[in-house]
Amino acid sequence: MDPLPNPAPLASKLWNTLVRYHSIEDGEWRVAKKTKDATVWRKPSEEFSGYLYKAQGVVEDVTNRIVDHIRPGPYRLDWDSLMASMDIMETFEENCCVMRYTTAGQLWNIIAPREFVDFSYTTSYEDGLLTCGISLDYGEVRPNFVRGFNHPCGWFCVPLKDSPGHSLLTGYIQTELRGMLPQSAVDTAMSSTLANFYSDLKKAL
Description:
- 25% of the residues lie in helices and 41% in strands.
- It is built from 4 helices and 12 strands, in the order H-E-E-E-H-H-E-E-E-E-E-E-E-E-E-H.
- The longest helix is centred in the C-terminal third of the chain and has 22 residues, at 183-204.
């Protein structure tokens, strides 16, 4: 188990990585799923053998309120059907923490519940906010859970210029679920989970 990292350089590296993902040309992405609430694309990840997913949709609300529902905190458990539990293990500053959370089983429990320990960082980006995270090898792995790993992930939330009461929410997710899983099952689950994330978030707001 690693000691906790120094938050400042980790936050800075994470920010740079997410901004780089955000500038990837449209032509590099392939559409994975489209719903009325969101479009999900994917491309091979540079971090591991799976995919980097990009999800995007317009959400009717102001950026601060949307990000408050996404980042670690009391709102998230209320509406995110995938998240089964969440504990803040360490708080560095108001916008920086380490959290442990567990996810529910997926695909008729082909994908068993997972546990993650993530460093989370929320900061301003353009006229809106970026909330991002990366998994850490920290804390004991609890029995009955497979420990998953999130490579750099994040959500950019910026107000629409011509409609300030609406925000464009763009997420970048690359989750290594680990354990013995067929990659095709993981890919199906990821696209659907990201599309559902938008419809669940809209209902919650």
